[in-house]
Design goal:
single chain, 152 residues, alpha+beta, Alpha-Beta Plaits, 2 domains
Amino acid sequence: MYGVSKISSEQNIMLTTFPSIQYSAGKLADCLDVFAKAGIVVDMICQSAPHSDRVDVSFTTSYSNFSAVMKALPEAAKDNPPMISGGFSKVNLFGEEMVTSCGVAARAMRALAAVGVEVILITTSDLDISVLIRQQDEDAALSALQQAFELS
């Protein structure tokens, strides 16, 4: 209900963040291209709003790609070292009606806040919202979101 018809999750997600890289489409493309050439599927690509001539860029990938990511990092991190952390789950809310539904993200954030689940990263499209959370909070998050969207 409320625009969401399905909620799913994926465990063992790794977050890579490049803080304060040069604000340019070319630099972002260069960075992501390193991982593409290494055969690493990245997801939840998120860029901050520019601050001066810099942006922060984050993306997720399966922790099973840890070795490949570490191998690719020297080429990708020429200018500034990234921060890498694991132990996350990605929760995805999907719904074809989401595109015409108001307040879906607000409802999701309220439900997560009510059970003390902090959102590390959020990305959206017309049909889905993906949130990165600590893996230990996955069960509480799924339960709260299913209840909030009446999918239990």
